[in-house]
Each structure stands twice: as structure tokens, then as C-alpha cells.
Design a protein that fits this description.
7-stranded mixed β-sheet, pyridoxal phosphate, alpha/beta, PyrdxlP-dep_Trfase_small, Aspartate Aminotransferase, domain 1, Cys_dSase-rel, 15 helices, PyrdxlP-dep_Trfase_major, Cysteine desulfurase-like protein, 410 residues, 4-stranded antiparallel β-sheet, Aspartate Aminotransferase, domain 2
Length: 410
Amino acid sequence: MNLTQLRRQFPALMQQVAGKSPIFLDGPGGSQVPQPVLSAMSAYLGYYNSNLGGAFFSSEKTVELMADARQAAADLLNSPSRDQIVFGANMTSLTFSFSRAISRDWQAGDEIIVTNADHFSNVSSWQQAAEDKGVKVNTVLINEADCSLDLAHFASLLSTKTKLVAVTYASNTTGSINDIKRIVEMAHSVGALVYVDAVHYAPHELIDVQALDCDFLACSAYKFFGPHLGMVYAKREHLEGFTPYKVEPAKDVIPGRWETGTQSFEALAGLIAAVDYIADISELDGSYSRRDKLASAFAKTKQHEMALSEYFLTRLVNYPKIKLFGIDDLDRLAERTPTFALTFAGLEPRQVSEFLGKQHVCVWDGNFYAQGLCKQLGVLDTGGVVRIGCMHYNTIAELDKLFDLFDELI
Ligand SMILES: Cc1ncc(COP(=O)(O)O)c(C=O)c1O
């Protein structure tokens, strides 16, 4: 991967702030955006800004854009059809709307499962739907040693009463990746549906909804180099079978029956460019499909991200005052994203992020809405953790600067 060339595509990475190159280790909160995405959004707004269904060029262009955006998302997720991609404002809004529709036929005595590994968008939406129907909510714990999901606990909670399992593909706080294929198999064996939150996972690895056999999978383009936009893949039978809350005249055809109001067409233009940006990392020529290119690109970025993780974890061992929550085993790098949850002895997370922020090293502190996880780890009431979130555009040199600042701080 030609990192120098790749980084040049990102205006944010090339800028100087008060004479210094900023270091963006805030990716899990939202990644930086390459120029082709900015150009695509600006071109849509500048030349074609319109709506669907008009008898004129810019509206026709908008219809085409929407179809292209669905195809780009379908390629990214390996959806069998672009009609199985639903767009919306963000993952949270979409998940609330899906939770309303999916829970319509739940009854008292039914149960659902959420997890302590999840962002609360994939917890509260289901909890509130369950509350409305008198349905019991079971919560899977994490293994505190490595922050992986406790699958034995999950198995003990599953039963024929379970209607739905809501689970994250990877923790947005510790980076631990869950074995979704296995979780889906276990859930399906008792007839439960599975709603996967792939928001944190999506920028790091290739998703294959068909291989996972999940019922629903949600992600957000602003986490994978695109604009603020949410999307959900769902099995066709569910998009046709469940009934969404929807304005009357537009409620029959999928996937439109799941989309409310006017979409952010400029964001859809940005999404296409973001997917193409990732595909182009492969450097494969035009004879390959976009899906093939994405597979090759993610293989490259994963390798680089694993190298970043290895470097980070190897250096971190020399800092006894910093505690890591999550996988630290160098033989298990494939099971994590390069996202690191840390606490510093004698310092609050906010003090650390403020110190780094003053040097234009951007890191987040807090609980990142992973409240169950932070509670189980005992950090919810102490400011959460400091999150160092690497993306494929980050470099070893940036991590060196980060550790220099850790030295200064400690
Ligand atoms: C793992 C995870 N899930 C869900 C969300 C919510 O996504 P959105 O902001 O698109 O609603 C986030 C946002 O940070 C996240 O990190």
C-alpha cells in the first residue's frame, strides 16, 4: 500500500494547524474524507441538486445516483441485490425505525438479546421496543480479560423464546471483533433473527452479509471515509415481510418503503466515491469487479492495520501506568481492529485527551455510548477511557509522536 500517495488524497491529513501536522487518531468517531468524496458531493450539489421523479435532467440524474449508491453499498456488503439496501440519516435512526417494525408482533413472554459490547444505538432501540411489548431483554456479558463477547453466556441466554439478537460486529471502544457467523448460526438454531451493528467494523474489514447469513446489518458511511449517512442491509423476506411505519402513498415497493422523506442525495454521491476510494486501494485494473477490488483493498489495509496494532501494543508494554482494555496478544491481532481503550494511572481520560488535543493529536475520551461495556469494566463513572483509533491512513511515525507525548505526560 502506497501510504504517502494514499494520504495525499485527504485534505485533512495534508493541512497544518498552528504550524503542525495534526494527527487523527479519532477514526472510530468518524474517519477523515478523501478528495474524491468531497468532489462528488460538491458536484451533485453544484450541478444536479434535485429530487426523484421529475421529467428533467437533474432529477433523472438523481434517480440514477440513487441506484448507483445502492449498488455501491451492495458491493461493499455483498448484498445479493441493491434492492436490499436501505438508506437513512444515520445508523441510530434506521435502527430505531427497524426496531419499531420488527417488534410489531412481539408478545409478552418473548425475549430478545442485546450485548454489553454494543454501542447503545443497538441496545436502547431494542430495549424500548421490548418495553412497549412486555418482552424480556437479556444482556450478554463480555469476557473482561480481552473484552470479547462471552459466547458461553450468550448460549445460556438463547432459547426458543428469543425473537431477536442485536450484536455488534466489533466494539467501537476496545476493537474486539465478534464471531458473527457463529452467533448467527446459534441464533438461527432457535429461530431468532440477528441485527448486526457493523458501524465500527466496516472501515476495517470486508463485510459479506451472504456469508454471515445475518438478517440485518447496519453501518454508517462517515466511519468509512464517506459522509454522514446510514444504511441497512436486510434479507429480502424481511424487507417484504415486516411493515415499516411509512407515509401512506409510498409504502409498497422495497427498499423505498423503508425510507422516509427525502434522502441526502449529496451524501449518496459521497458514498459511491467512498466505496470507489476503498476499491482503488487495490490498484487492480478495470477488468476486476468492484467487489474483487474491495476484497483486495481490505486485505491490504488489514495488513497495514495489523502492523499498526502490533507496533502500538509492543510499545505499550513499556508503559506500566497505562492500562489497556482488550486484546493485547500479538497472535490475535486479526481478532481486533486497531482501536485501543486506555486508562492512565492518576489521570482522568479527559485530561489525557485535552493534553493530546493541545498538540493537535485528536483522540476521544468517554464511553462512546458503549455504556454496558464501560460499566462492566468499571470505568463508566470515572470518565470512561481514552480511545486511540487508527485507520489505514495512520502511520507508525504518528504512533511514535503519540508515544513521545505519553512520555511527556506521564
Ligand atoms: C459501533 C457503533 N454503532 C453505532 C453507532 C451510531 O452510528 P450513527 O452515528 O450512524 O447513528 C456508532 C457511532 O459512533 C458506533 O460507533
